[in-house]
Specification:
The complex is a heterotetramer.
Chain A lengths: L2 H20 L9 H6 L4 H31 L9 H4 L11 H37 L7 H21 L30 H29 L12 H32 L10 E2 L2 E2 L7 H34 L7 H15 L14 H13 L1 H15 L8 H24 L1 H7 L3 H31 L5 H22 L22 H31 L41 E3 L2 E3 L21 H11 L1
Chain B lengths: L1 H6 L2 H4 L11 H29 L15 H4 L12 H25 L3 H31 L12 H33 L2 H5 L3 H26 L1
Chain D lengths: L5 H32 L6 H22 L7 H8 L3 H24 L4
Helix pairs in contact in D: 1-2
Classes of the chains: A mainly alpha, B mainly alpha, C alpha+beta, D mainly alpha.
Chain lengths: 622, 225, 474, 111
Amino acid sequence: MSAETSTHAHHVDTHAHGHDHHDHDHHHEPGFIRKYIFSEDHKTISKQFLITGIFWAIVGGLLSVLFRIQLGYPDADLTWMKPFLGKWISEEGQIVPEFYNALITMHGTILVFFVLTAGLSGTFSNFLIPLMIGARDMASGFLNMLSYWFFFLAGVIMFISFFLATGPASGGWTAYPPLNALHDASQGGVLGVDFWLVSMAVFIVSSLLGSLNYITTIINLRTKGMKMFRMPLPIWAFLLTAVIGVLSFPVLLSAAILLLFDRNLGTSFYLDAINLAGEPLANAGGSPILYQHLFWFLGHPEVYIIILPAMGMVSEILSVHSRKPIFGYTAMIYSLLAITVLSFIVWAHHMFMTGMNPFIGSIFVIFTLIIAVPSAIKVFNWLTTLWRGNIRLNPPMLFAIGFVSLFISGGLTGIFLGNSSIDIRLHDTYFVVAHFHLVMGVAAFFGMFAGVYHWFPKMFGRYMNQTLGYIHFWGTIAAAYLIFFPMHWEIALPRRYYTHSGFEAFSGFEQLNMFISTMAIISFALQLLFVFNFFYSIFFGRKVREMNPYGATTLEWTTPIRPGHGNWEGDIPEVHRWPYDYSKHGRDFIPQTEPLTQYEIEHGEHGDEHDSDIIKSEEHKG
Amino acid sequence: MEAAVSTTNAKELWSGGDSPFKVSYGKIMMWYFLISDTFTFAGLLISYGAIRSSQPKHDETNPLSWPDPNHVFNAGPGFHHAPLVFVTFMTFTLILSSVTMVRAVQEGHYMNRAGVLKWMALTILGGLVFVLSQAWEWTHLIHEGMTPSSNPFGAYSFGALFFLITGFHGFHVSVGVLLNSWAFIQTYRGVFDRRGHYEMIEKLGLYWHFVDLVWVYVFLAFYLF
Amino acid sequence: MATGWLIFIAIVLIVVVLFQVTRTLDLVGQLRGGERTTVEMTRFHAMLGLIFIALGMIGFFYSFPLFSDRMVDKHSSNNAIIISKMFLITLWVTGIVFVITNVLLFWFAWQFRHRPGNEAVHFAHSNKLEFIWTIVPTIVLTGLVVFGLQAWTEIMGPAEEDATVVEVTGQQFFWSSRYPGPDGKLGPRDNDLICADNPLGIVTREWVEHRRVTLAGSKKLNHVGEIEVLQNREKEIQELIKQYTAIIDGSPNKYIVAATQDTLALIEKELGKIPGKITIREKALDRINKKYTEEYIAAHADEFTWGYDDPMPSEVHVPVNKQAYLKIMALDVLHNFYIPHMDVKMDAVPGMPTSFKFTPLITTNDKRQELANNPAWSIIEEGDDKPRYAKFNYEVACAELCGTGHSAMKYTLVVDSQEDYDKWIAAQASKWSQVAGSLKLENGFSKYAPVPAPATPMATTTTTPSDTITISLK
Amino acid sequence: MSTLSREESKKRVWRVCGILALVTIVEIAAALIHYNYMEDSPKTFLNILFIILSAGKAYYIMSEFMHLKYELKPMVISVLAPFLFLIWGVIAFLWEGKYWLSMKQFWDVLN
């Protein structure tokens, strides 16, 4: 053994054990600021992400209410909003078209990035990764804290852009050039887009810091016995989400840098032969389609960044509350992996009608439709998980079931859209809006709600009000379907239209639009019920009195009811089995920390398809 | 220890309680950060590829065709009409500074503070020379009329892409020089000695080599093709 | 206002009462014992789930035919027929899966609900099952891909030789079109040549000359060029700034000072933009001078004449049952040439022409006759003299967000019978070839020649985007 | 450097430095020879050579300087695998660029 090896190995050891020393340094109680504001504790950071996410969800939802009023009640008199919105309300009391565009742009940006990326993955990755894999905290608490504060900064920048004289970005959440590359093509383009781009760049830094932490923590800090194939499914989902984030967000960063250059330094990466309102521009040699390719190279994986964590959490919740192992654990992991890989090679299915090479388009059709296979596997596995279970329908379980339903309904329309020939009809219409809102908007929200209701007791040591939760669920799922299902009928109606009244071809949808808008407003109001329930329960909810209220097998329920910094008071528990031993050997559940008995075969060890039969015979013996 | 590593079977490494890569979390993070950064550069270089292939190929008669690098990069401080000589010098500077960085990392393994200081100083020097060379080249090209929005040598996009990508790379080098200087001071103050290991130098080394690695492709894209 | 407050207070009260009720329910549930409550709640919500899915499915099957006639035109073009077929196939496949999986989901929730005597089965995986639901979707999707790509290739493949070529151009916020004249060739275009008189930048010898003069000016024609106009404006503003500064320094009246400062800020902003505008024009002039040398024009003598006879009508006409081949262009930002009835949709990209082809199968007139049978179309709307169907036209819209006036980019497509089309195009050609004649001026400058106004909405080009929208929408 | 002694690893570094320098010189020389003596011949073959040589340089930098050669295999895979995602990206982007040019040339006779 050479001297070098020993020193080298020595580093590793110091660091591997570093975390056991970690909590010794923190025995003194940190002050208020270190504890709640600039906290490095993953649980606090996760709550920060969640509450900021809720704030942005309210803002984003409110924006959608505003533009739904314009679509559903174009004649409504909104003069009373003039004190708040000023010139964005016309003299006749209507939302002006430029503001309408700003509303849809900001609604998309806020919900996709701030709520469903940061608010969802940021919250639950932070909260669950250390708790479920048995770690004291994230690998780097400091970077984790920075991750939140960069997110916060990105939000501040985006928020400031609302108060610009020329308004926030108004060229769509995808920020396609040239509309968003030119200062004079729209009002939002004057300054709003610069804010948008800078905010996105900061957001990307935040996402990167977070993702690096999640990946590293999962790789290096699993407790003893926590093999990769003993990790609960949410952890797999968070891991792959983080991988997608690390690899796809940088491409958006390069796209944003190029766009910033085009806007402010006279370059022509995306611009060629432009004559704006009679004014010639000097740009030459670029291509607007290039931006779209770069954007969707991020943008498509982004939708999986949004939906994978929800899938993971739903798998866990379905299993816990039906008292059955998740069906096809390994298949679930491999389908997550397949989705991750495929997500990087299908981006241009958003671009069939943008003047890209139709032959390349057909290759993208093939890749795209393959994604339906792992998605189908997941759906069937979820269904089979419910089959012959012992299902407790509490709010988290209902939201998880709702997620599956919405994912099916929204996912199936993806098969229409992924097929380029049908996409000619559907591209940029309300059919698309319906599709992605169901499958990645509402479904991801349902995953998030399921997660919040399920892990709220662990987060705050109190329960949320269950009855309000039930009302919230039934109201939301009904409203969601009533908003987005009829939207499929608006099949040829182009989206991002301030009004469709100028066209005979688009007439006849006024009542439907009114109905959808009404439902949207109701659904928004229902979400406020959740917000109220959430904050009320933090302070006044019924207290949790047992460590493991759901009878779940995973590690987070072995921590104290309100875990302190370092999560476990004594040693970190060791793991001996996979996380889904429910209803096995006549026992309701067997925690992961319980060693295998002599006769027991661990799940996945034998790879036999008659698993259940073996267990039955075991039961007879026992 | 060596024996332990070799006998541990791969499966056990993954069974928790230890790093399956036998690598500390800091280094893993740095590695994955670099992969992420690679994708940023890849985004820029792929854009370069797409724009370039959408422009007419180099053609003496077409003033808007893609320029020949031998025409553009043919000067250095004090000399002209010597294509690619100056950039060769820059490339060598970067390679050498990478080598000095490796030496610093190696000395760090043996806790040799004086050695680390010596090689870090040389690395920083190399970085500075590279950044200054790039500054000279930029000044020269701007003098010749090449700006982000114009290019006397041919296709407009060439200038814009050149400044963007070499600028982004130069930014990375500059950040590297700053970080290395910081590490140099920390080493001098004996911080790493007290910590018991020079892992910080290793992590910075990874970053520094990555910058070198990116240059290989920037060099390929702008100076060779 | 008072009623508003009353309503507000009432709502708040109702919410508070409701909340108290839910709290009590929760507490009562706990008092009665968690297990019993769980069983009852599970039963109740599983039942709600069954009702939900039943109502949902009824709603689905009820509303589908309700809207299907409004959805799209299924037979007005070959694309519509192909796509409708693909759509229907996919609808069947996905529809069946949709119904089965959703019903199973809620039925399982009911059937296997937690209740005394129900026990979960430890059923963790089955290779057989998982294999089935990997392979079956794969096969089905392969089928969809194959059919889909067949349709896609048919629609996007190369156009027929004798297709009717139409060039359409999108800009904020209107469309314009151009046809190859009697020579059958579309004249080339150049962004640098675009000016008020030549809005599409058509390249002919005269337009090149014209643009040179509009940019650089001409002593001979006594015409001041754009560059000089801007330079003069710059001087003028500098002069104004001096005057205003003097007012600000000298005036004791603070209101006058404030007002003058505002004006000053505005014109300083304008001044700041002028150098850029001059540079852009100088660059364009430079490019024009460099590119359109006498040798170049001589070498491309033919191409320089193609633009003379290109009609630029204010709507698109195409003959029925014959392929139409669209060359789609954009001047400023992305647009999308969208004809809902024809299933035509393709982005207009600045700097890169795109194309799309379709074969219209029903003339506008026949379509009107077809609609006459539809009661919704045979009504006569208030203030109209003709029934709705008589005014029917195939409409063109924009399907790519292009700014404030995105929803106002309306254009018209007329599908003619072959005879009608021949007549129409001949009339257009004769009308526009006169223009070509007027362009062939000896001094190479057509500013004072009778150039007819281009396609109607051109007048809005000079207004700011926000003005345009109020004009075109209200 | 689990198997190398201090001296060996030092030597190895300088050897890699030599290889990188040599490859760079070969590249520059090839480019200059092409420029000076055979400017009219297409550069395709040369470009392929450049790509191969650059990949070689990248290999040495990553494996030796960045120490990747001496890491455990799963680590190496986890670092290298993401680059597979770029393959289709590069193909698609370059293909697209060519298509944009061809569309311009197809429709615009003066280009």
